[in-house]
Specification:
This protein is mainly alpha-helical. The protein folds into two domains: 30 residues; 148 residues. It is built from six helices and no strands. It starts with a helix and ends in a 5-residue tail after the last helix.
């Protein structure tokens, strides 16, 4: 009986030691450089897409189309911006929490900012989609109000980097080629 307990205790010690090694190996997040690379790889296509969509929205606002056509086009454009923002947010989330001073705060700040941008585009899409197209002047006034609100919400969603200072991450963002 004593031999069985000793053998069991020995096996348990090996299992626990293996578990500790595995947990320790999996516990750390990505290095600042790896995280900055992942984030910039997520944000670069997002910025490009948002830029294209902003340009298309401006064109749509001045195009000679019917309110119904403009509504359809704007709803599609804002849905695209909403989706692009969610994709970027999800990719930042997948990058994990960087192993850096204030890494958790910076990570959460990026995620929250992109979530707010996504939601702002979603509200603009829903608002414009809900406008009546029967009266062109009222429709375009509603579109302008929705775009004004979007711009305010977009500005308010900006990441306040003054509170999220991590020298390691600042340096990484300055150095990795994906962020240039």
């Amino acid at each position: 009986m004593r031999t069985c307990r000793a053998a069991a205790a020995g096996k348990l010690t090996v299992v626990l030691a293996t578990f500790v090694v595995l947990v320790a190996g999996c516990g750390g997040g990505p290095s600042p450089r790896a995280w900055a690379t992942s984030v910039c790889e997520a944000l670069t296509p997002w910025r490009t897409e948002i830029s294209k969509l902003t340009s298309s929205t401006k064109q749509q606002m001045t195009a000679q189309t019917t309110p119904a056509q403009a509504q359809e086009n704007l709803v599609r454009l804002f849905a695209g911006a909403e989706q692009a923002s969610e994709t970027a947010r999800r990719r930042v989330e997948e990058a994990g929490i960087p192993e850096a001073e204030h890494g958790e705060e910076v990570f959460q700040g990026f995620r929250a900012s992109l979530g707010k941008v996504r939601d702002a585009y979603g509200r603009a899409r829903a608002t414009i989609g809900g406008l009546s197209t029967g009266q062109p002047t009222a429709f375009y006034d509603g579109v302008q109000a929705a775009v004004d609100t979007l711009n305010k919400e977009y500005d308010a969603s900006a990441l306040d980097t003054s509170r999220l200072s991590s020298e390691e991450l600042k340096q990484a963002f300055d150095e990795v080629p994906e962020c240039r």
